[in-house]
Amino acid sequence: MAVKTLSLAEFLAELDEYDCRVPLDELRERMEALDLSYDDIKSFARFGRETYQRNLMHAGPGYQALILCWRAGQRSPIHDHSGSSCGVRVVKGTLTETIFDRTPEGLVFPTHTHRLHEGGVCGSQDSDMHQVSNLQPPGCDLITLHVYSPPLLKMGTYSLTDTRIGEFVDPVVGFVAGDGI
Q1: pLDDT of 3
Q2: Domains and CATH numbers, the chain
């Protein structure tokens, strides 16, 4: 199904029609069709000092849309998506995504790394393991739109040196500009 170019308001309105999980292929298709600029989301762009920051932009019946802000050198833990579809769109900067797999013994190892520039989209779901990083030079920020369906309230985390699976409840900063979009 071909999707026309969508404004941010149209994109969110289409997602609001889902009351359950948005299939990953449909989520990616809509994120690729999204006409989005930094000006559209700048009121949600808030950065953390020590780690990346998750800023809630909009919540619908079956998803949350967040603006994640990354300073140079900041990265997510290696994590899965524990029952959620996740679509990511780069708004500003260059994102580095590293995909991981597990050995039969339970250790994780990187299998692929790629970069996405402004407008680039990637997606993952359920037990897919990855890490998102801003590996740009100092002073170069990364801003990304993430849509989690259903909302990602906790995720499994992984270590390169330990077989135990951790659980991470990532802090979401509420609507930073009032009521959201």
Answers
A1: 57
A2: 8-173 (2.60.120.10)
